[in-house]
């Protein structure tokens, strides 16, 4: 299906909109020159039906969760129930203005307050701030809170190090570094868990804290987490949990009960709100009592039968962004949480674990499976290393060939500690039939690698756009070149 640029459809005088007559004074002519754009913006002039046809054709070129399965590993592209979209578009939510008076937005403040309480219960933390606008944003806020804690104790000058496992998400060392800390990498053992002896070698009174993803980035729960927490706390450090994989432990274990002092949530990863392309997102941050005074504002509290923003403490790290955070995302997550309830959230984790283990069992004899002897949780880690050595088929080739079978590729080449890695996370929203179809395609690709490797190396072969010439694109950044 050809889709020309919309500018090619432009005919002077056509328009795809009808605006009401202006009912307020027109002050545009009174604007200062510095606010007036000198050049004219050339926009396409098309009719409404041509605009919608163009947009629909573009959407048909995209792969999205309403088309098929996203086994996308750490990004957890789970299905976003349509009821979430309905509630987030209620007029009284959609038409809110952030400067409305408190008395005028009690329902919205109540939602923020109630989701704070729900997240506190899920995580075992004492207080939650909904302010951060993304997972990495919440992570940044959490590490700032750790910094503030050490500043309040006059120890920040000596506590300059944050410990981070070598399997960590890339945002972990980035957040620590942005907050002014030195990052110290801790090695992992062959079983994917933290090397306690390596950890002990780095502990001292210069440690500000440690960042851990639970379960970790190879899908394994750190069995020695209470011992790790004890060691870090004994040297005066704090424990930070990256909440990206929280969907594997809800209703099973609370991070606040196993030694963590602070964590961020990913509403888009755990509670189904949409994300991608840098937003929208929401990354609330939860803490125990020792860090409550450092949380970012605003935080909603209940006063009698009404809701208000709590007074900002003098030690707060301040605002992470303007106003309330991404409120529509919060409404979506709140809807999801209330629809499922406690039993439903437990089922989410249970099914996510079952689905990932099922995939591992089906594929472990066809791909390298470095952790097949371990108890995995929400994601299965495989590798195409043997396929590459035997037949010249890389993980990148496997990912591209999956597109020919109408599956979005999983995360590839991460975690970095696994060569030719495939990180497969089906979440809880996929049926056994879909998972079987995915596994069948993965198995068929291994057969193709052996008997017809060129069809894998040239993939995708059935899509409107073929494989990008990566080398050419890197050298010619402004030119789009496709091999078809």
Q: What percentage of the residues does DSSP assign to strands (E)? A: 5-15%
The total of helices stands at: 15
Biggest sheet strand line-up? 1-7-6-5-4-2-3
Question: pLDDT average, as an integer?
Answer: 91
Helix content: 25-40%
Rg over CA atoms: 25 Å
Shape: globular
Order of helices and strands: HHHHEHEHEHEHEEHEEEHEHHEEHHEHE
* Total count of strands: 14
Distance between the termini: 14 Å
- Helices and strands: which structural class? alpha/beta
Low-confidence region ranges: 480-484
State the major sheet: 7 strands, mixed
Task: Describe this structure as you would to a colleague.
By secondary structure, this protein is an alpha/beta fold. The chain has 15 helices and 14 strands. The chain has helices at residues 48-60, 82-88, 91-94, 106-123, 135-152, 171-178, 196-202, 225-234, 267-270, 327-363, 385-391, 395-404, 432-451, 453-457, 470-475, and strands at residues 127-129, 161-165, 182-186, 207-213, 238-242, 262-264, 285-287, 300-303, 306-309, 380-383, 411-412, 421-424, 467-468, 482-483. The strands form four sheets. It has a seven-stranded mixed sheet with strand order 1-7-6-5-4-2-3, with helices on both faces. It starts with 47 loop residues before the first helix and ends with a strand.
List the helices and strands and how they pair.
Elements lengths: L47 H13 L21 H7 L2 H4 L11 H18 L3 E3 L5 H18 L8 E5 L5 H8 L3 E5 L9 H7 L4 E7 L11 H10 L3 E5 L19 E3 L2 H4 L14 E3 L12 E4 L2 E4 L17 H37 L16 E4 L1 H7 L3 H10 L6 E2 L8 E4 L7 H20 L1 H5 L9 E2 L1 H6 L6 E2 L1
Parallel strand pairs: 2-3, 2-4, 4-5, 5-6
Antiparallel strand pairs: 1-7, 6-7, 8-9, 10-12, 11-12, 13-14
Helix pairs in contact: 2-10, 4-10, 5-6, 10-13
């Amino acid at each position: 299906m050809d889709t020309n640029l919309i500018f090619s459809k432009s005919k002077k005088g056509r328009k795809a909109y009808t605006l009401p007559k202006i009912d307020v004074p027109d002050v545009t002519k009174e604007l200062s020159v510095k606010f007036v754009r000198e050049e004219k913006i050339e926009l396409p002039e098309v009719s409404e039906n041509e605009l919608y046809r163009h947009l629909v054709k573009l959407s048909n070129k995209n792969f999205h969760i309403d088309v098929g399965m996203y086994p996308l590993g750490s990004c957890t592209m789970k299905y976003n129930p349509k009821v979430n979209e309905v509630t987030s578009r209620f007029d009284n939510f959609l038409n809110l203005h952030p400067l409305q008076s408190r008395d005028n937005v009690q329902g919205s403040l109540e939602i923020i307050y109630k989701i704070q309480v729900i997240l506190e219960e899920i995580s075992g933390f004492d207080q939650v701030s909904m302010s951060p606008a993304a997972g990495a944003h919440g992570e940044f806020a959490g590490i700032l809170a750790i910094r503030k804690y050490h500043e309040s104790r006059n120890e920040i000058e000596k506590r300059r190090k944050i410990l981070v496992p070598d399997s960590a998400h890339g945002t972990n060392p980035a957040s620590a570094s942005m907050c002014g800390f030195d990052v110290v990498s801790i090695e992992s053992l062959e079983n994917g868990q933290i090397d306690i002896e390596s950890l002990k070698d780095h502990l001292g009174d210069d440690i500000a804290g440690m960042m851990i993803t639970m379960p970790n980035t190879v899908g394994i729960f750190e069995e020695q987490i209470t011992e790790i927490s004890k060691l870090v706390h004994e040297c005066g450090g704090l424990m930070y949990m990256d909440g990206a994989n929280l969907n594997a432990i809800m209703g099973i274990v609370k991070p606040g009960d196993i030694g963590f002092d602070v964590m961020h949530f990913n509403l888009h990863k755990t509670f189904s709100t949409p994300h991608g392309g840098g937003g929208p997102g929401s990354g609330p941050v939860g803490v125990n009592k020792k860090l409550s005074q450092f949380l970012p504002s605003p935080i909603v509290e209940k006063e009698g039968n009404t809701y208000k923003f709590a007074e900002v403490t003098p030690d707060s790290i301040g605002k992470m962004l303007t106003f309330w955070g991404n409120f529509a995302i919060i409404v979506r997550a709140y809807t999801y949480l209330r629809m499922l309830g406690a039993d439903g959230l437990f089922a989410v984790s249970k099914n996510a674990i079952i689905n990932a283990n099922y995939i591992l069992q089906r594929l472990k004899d066809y791909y390298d499976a470095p952790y097949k002897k371990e108890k995995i949780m929400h994601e299965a880690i495989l590798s195409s290393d043997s396929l590459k050595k035997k037949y010249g088929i890389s993980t990148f080739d496997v990912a591209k060939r999956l597109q020919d079978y109408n599956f979005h590729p999983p995360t590839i080449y991460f975690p970095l500690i696994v060569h030719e890695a495939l990180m497969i996370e089906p979440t809880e929203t996929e049926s056994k039939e879909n998972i079987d179809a995915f596994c069948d395609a993965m198995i068929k690709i291994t057969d193709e690698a052996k008997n017809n490797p060129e069809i894998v190396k040239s993939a995708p072969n059935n899509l409107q756009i073929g494989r990008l010439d990566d080398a050419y694109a890197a050298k010619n950044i402004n030119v789009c070149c496709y091999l078809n």
